[in-house]
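SEQUENCE-TO-STRUCTURE ENTRY
===========================
What this section holds: a protein sequence and its matching fold, both as plain text.
Question of interest: how does this chain fold, as expressed in backbone structure tokens?
***
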Amino acid sequence: MSAYIPLYERAFLFDRFAGAMVIAPNVAVTNAHNANLVTEDMVLARSFEYDLLFFRTDRKQPATIASAYVGEAVIAYGQSGKSGLNEAKGVVRMLDAYLPQRCRECRVQRSMAYDAEAGKGFSGGPVVDAASGAVLGITFGFEDGVGRGGVRRMYAYDMDLVLSEMDRLLNAGTR
């Protein structure tokens, strides 16, 4: 959890919150739709094909990363207000779930699907292996009642995709 970064903003009477994760020395990731929670001078790169935003952090120790497998017990982490941390236990259901692209020029969104009772504040947060704590993915969306027993189906980019997108964008100097 030392690699988890809570993101929070109070705008008028509304609280906006999400999570982020340190994935390389001085580099964290969250969803691009959380850009309002990160100051522009911290942004290193924004993916236009995926809902990913990479930003500068003072933290140097990245999270341990692993690959998911179907049936794996997971815990998703999300933010609840300024200081609250939520967790939702679940199970990986698919490794190659494909969702519609975010724009006409964008790629189809390949994701890992897991069933868990997570929701607001989980976007940009990590999905970790329940036994080892290794980060398996970054949550970006959900569908209600799609999972087994009608539970919420959550979607996350697996860490291979996140790291390859980070390398592609940072090496290209894209901001």
Observations:
- The chain has two domains: 4-62+163-172, 73-159.
- The mean pLDDT is 88.
